[in-house]
Amino acid sequence: MSQLDSLPPLRESLADHGLLADKSFGQHFLLDLNITRKIARLAGPLEGQTVIEVGPGPGGLTRALVEAGANVIAVEKDARFLPLLNELAAVSDGRLTLVEADALKVDEAALAGGPGHVVSNLPYNVGTPLLIKWLTGPWRPVSMSLMFQKEVADRIAAPAGADAYGRLSVVSQALARAKVVMDLPARAFTPPPKVASAVVRLDPLADAPPAELIAALEKVTAAAFGQRRKMLRSSLRNLGGKALCEKAGIDPNVRAETVPVEGFLRLARAL
């Protein structure tokens, strides 16, 4: 029997510590270990791998990651959870490191000390900024398995032509292979959010575009999807409009949602 098995159920631990979710942190807890173990499996194999987890809260996913053999670095902004997480660290054979910090400001390269994965049930209010940080920042994860609101997850993985396809789809897919691997209803969480959630698996591309090209891509997609009902010759007018489209080999009369990721990369190169 693992020492982890000696821990009380998560609901009991939360009650013992008098802890409730804080809406200002966008907290919704996953307390069902069957679900958190499935997320860990979808992210795996993690035996001996370094994993950064953001917003562990009471540690449901953290337990599953430690069980899977990962060396977990848990970044938690809410100090209320540190005593509870320290109880988990005490029975984790040195494979759980706790960092009290804002994940938007941490230096992941310094924390991980090399390559690593990110597996997180992300706080809703910082999910997208964190994804962009990991996709475009100096430290690139080996893989990311991230829980978002279902609507955001669908946007990340949407193909051209889909209703959800937009700026986030293009930037994410220009830098990684993205796939929704698990859907979760609101009732899976405590407290239940108003929306469903989903886990997205992202595997960064080996030959990712350089930083200057991504900056140009962000500029092009902001203009194109900022007026998504207009033809590109109109929505991109301030960036060159019809001339930019023709330089990139893109029909200036199409709308942004029909242009595939490679088309936007050509527009960014032309810019």
Write the layout of secondary structure elements.
Layout: H1 10-17, E1 29-30, H2 33-43, E2 50-54, H3 60-67, E3 71-76, H4 82-90, E4 96-100, H5 108-112, E5 117-121, H6 127-136, E6 144-149, H7 150-157, H8 167-175, E7 176-184, E8 189-190, E9 197-204, H9 211-226, H10 232-235, H11 241-248, H12 261-270
Parallel strand pairs: 2-3, 2-5, 3-4, 5-6
Antiparallel strand pairs: 1-8, 6-9, 7-9
Task: Walk me through this protein's architecture.
The structure is a single chain. The protein is of the alpha/beta class and 271 residues long. The chain has 2 domains: 3-204, Rossmann fold, CATH 3.40.50.150; 211-270, Helicase, Ruva Protein, domain 3. The chain has 12 helices and 9 strands. It has helices spanning 10-17, 33-43, 60-67, 82-90, 108-112, 127-136, 150-157, 167-175, 211-226, 232-235, 241-248, 261-270, and strands at residues 29-30, 50-54, 71-76, 96-100, 117-121, 144-149, 176-184, 189-190, 197-204. The strands form 2 sheets. The protein has a 7-stranded mixed β-sheet with strand order 4-3-2-5-6-9-7, sandwiched between helices. Strand 2, helix 3 (60-67) and strand 3 form a beta-alpha-beta unit. Helix 2 (33-43) packs across helix 3 (60-67) and helix 8 (167-175) runs antiparallel to helix 9. The longest helix is centred in the C-terminal third of the chain and has 16 residues, at 211-226. The protein is elongated. The N and C termini lie far apart (60 Å). The mean pLDDT is 91.
